[in-house]
Amino acid sequence: MVLKRNLSARERFFEVVFFGNPDKVPLSLWEIRPATLKRWWSEGLPYGLSASEYFRFDVYGLKSVNMVSYPSEGFMWEPGDAAVNLGPMPPFEYKILREDERYRVWMDSLGIIQMGFQEDWKGGWSGFATRTFIDFPVKTRGDFEGIKRRYNPHSPERYPSKWDNIVRDLNRRDGAYLVSMSLRGPFWWIRDMMGLEATLISFFKDEGLIYDILDLYVEFHLKVLRKALDDVEVDYVILNEDMAYNRGPMVSLRIFRDFLSPAYREVTGFFKGKGVKVILVDSDGNIEPLISELLKVGVNGITPCEVAAGMDVAVLRQKYPKLIMMGGIDKRKLASAKEDIDWEIDRVAPTIKMGGYIPGVDHAVPPDVSLENFRYFLESLKKVCGWTIYHNPV
Question: Taking Cα atoms as reference points, which of 35, 118, 107, 103 lies closest to residue 71?
Answer without folding.
Answer: 107
